[in-house]
Automatic annotation (TrEMBL):
Transmembrane helix among keywords: yes
Name by which UniProt lists this protein: Uncharacterized protein
Residues spanning the membrane: 85-103, 115-135, 147-166, 172-194
Domain of life (superkingdom): Bacteria
UniProt keyword annotations, A-Z: Membrane, Transmembrane, Transmembrane helix
Organism lineage string: Bacteria, Pseudomonadati, Bacteroidota, Cytophagia, Cytophagales
Length: 204
């Protein structure tokens, strides 16, 4: 049974009332609703009953949830690619630091450069990317959880850069190490143990 123009207009207006902003998704939803309702009408259901069934079947959590899922699927390949790049940088930086330390220990040439470049990539590329990834996972969570991520990674990056500068004999290395350590001691650790305390209370 085919829907008339009035019924199609009603479905379209309901979709337009939602917060869906992707026009292609609106067209796809309209097609899905029309096909589902026409199938239900052929079984003897009324239009109102068929529409409610279609709504519960296609959008059980509302129209907005459909858009969120669509955006996630569209961006999933980009997210996977970014994570591959992030962990590849982390792996290469870690390998460079490890081999650099070994070369320096054995007094081989190039050890210092490998160690330095590895630390730079790890501190200025991998850790910031990892921090952003972890921060996105805390969206919607408590402020203390977000601050724990921000202060923890900030302290680690600052302290790491300070250690690298200090071992290279460059100025302000000691000061930067102290700043990074203070961020960890008085910023990250209090929030870490506060969140651990909160989680332990929630489990009681």
């Amino acid at each position: 049974m085919i829907l008339d123009d009035k019924e199609v207009s009603f479905i379209k207006s309901e979709i337009e009332k939602s917060k869906i902003s992707i026009s292609e998704l609106k067209d796809d939803l309209l097609d899905h609703f029309c096909c589902f309702i026409e199938n239900e009408l052929s079984k003897g259901s009324s239009f109102e009953t068929a529409y409610v069934k279609a709504l519960n079947y296609i959008c059980p959590n509302g129209f907005e949830e459909i858009q969120k899922e669509t955006i996630y699927l569209l961006n999933s390949n980009k997210i996977i690619t970014m994570k591959k790049i992030m962990y590849l940088i982390g792996l290469l930086a870690s390998m460079s630091m490890t081999l650099g330390w070994l070369f320096k220990y054995l007094s081989w040439k190039g050890g210092g450069d490998m160690l330095t470049y590895g630390m730079i990539c790890f501190l200025l590329l991998f850790l910031p990317m990892l921090a952003i990834n972890r921060y996105k996972m805390t969206l919607g969570k408590a402020l203390s959880e977000k601050l724990k991520i921000i202060l923890g990674f900030s302290g680690a990056i600052v302290a790491g850069l300070g250690i690298m500068l200090r071992t290279s004999g460059m100025p302000y290395g000691t000061l930067i190490v102290i700043i990074g350590t203070l961020i960890i001691a008085f910023g990250f650790l209090p929030f870490l143990f506060f969140r651990m305390y909160q989680k332990s209370i929630e489990q009681i």
